Amino acid sequence: MAAELTDILGYEFSNKLLVTEALTHRSAVGANIGSYERLEFLGDRVLALVIADLLLAEFPSETEGALAKRFAELVRRETLAEIARKAGIANHILLGVSEKERGGQKNKTILADVCESLLGAMYLDGGLEPPRAFIEQYFLPRLQEAMEPPQDAKTALQEWAQSKGYGLPIYRQVLCAGPDHAPVFTISVTIKGISPAQGTGSSKRIAEQSAAKQFLAERSDD
């Protein structure tokens, strides 16, 4: 394993095959090495356990609902992809030629998956402490910087609609533009009898949140 990746992870693997597998996209699998997908499955659970433990320690007075909002924000694909990119993991991902040409090293799903697969690999190789140290280094600052739980605009819009006696909001994709590795989605949200609002984002989830936030902003005086 490259010294640079060892520095990024803060951990040196005893089993080098594990870290190679954790970095290998399905487009680059070979006879002796599989893809990162099984390790990603494990890493997702390792991340969830450590993040939940950190949240309980950092916010001892918060309710389960508030903790759940913080948890969802920390483990979502966009957060994982940003951490993988900032840490420098992207340059070490093993991709097939076609996937590399499509910009796979910038693909948020691949970045997030590899981040989780590396956590799973570290857990198998060295127990819980190596992935915990990585999570504390890269996730703990995000966890600590938010004094209040993140607000979910979609939930707020649904509650607003119900309080007014309207039906549930309906979200529709209007447009998807940009390259495969960096798409931009435009989502429209409508509630029967009210003018729709639109939002954009790098994923459908973000665009839906943006649309809900815009809808509420336009009716802040209602």
Describe this structure in words.
The chain has 222 residues and is mainly alpha-helical. The model has no long low-confidence stretch (mean pLDDT 89). It has helices at 3-9, 16-23, 37-58, 64-75, 77-87, 97-101, 108-126, 129-138, 140-145, 153-163, 204-218; strands at residues 170-177, 184-191, 194-201. The longest helix has 22 residues, at 37-58. It contains 11 helices and 3 strands. The protein is globular. A hairpin with a 2-residue loop joins strand 2 (184-191) and strand 3. 57% of the residues lie in helices and 11% in strands. It has a 3-stranded antiparallel beta sheet.
Features:
three-stranded antiparallel β-sheet; mainly alpha; 222 residues; Double Stranded RNA Binding Domain; Ribonuclease iii, N-terminal Endonuclease Domain, Chain A; 2 domains; 3 strands; single chain
End-to-end distance? 59 Å
**Pairing-aware structural class of the strands and helices?**
mainly alpha
Q: Helical proportion?
A: 55-70%
Largest pleated sheet? 3 strands, antiparallel
Number of strands: 3
CATH superfamily of the largest domain: Ribonuclease III domain
Number of domains: 2
Tell me the CATH topology of the largest domain.
Answer: Ribonuclease iii, N-terminal Endonuclease Domain, Chain A
Radius of gyration from CA coordinates: 20 Å
Outline: globular
Proportion in β-strands: 5-15%
Contiguous helical run count: 11
Strands in their spatial order, largest beta sheet: 1-2-3
Low-confidence stretches: none
Elements, N to C (H/E): HHHHHHHHHHEEEH
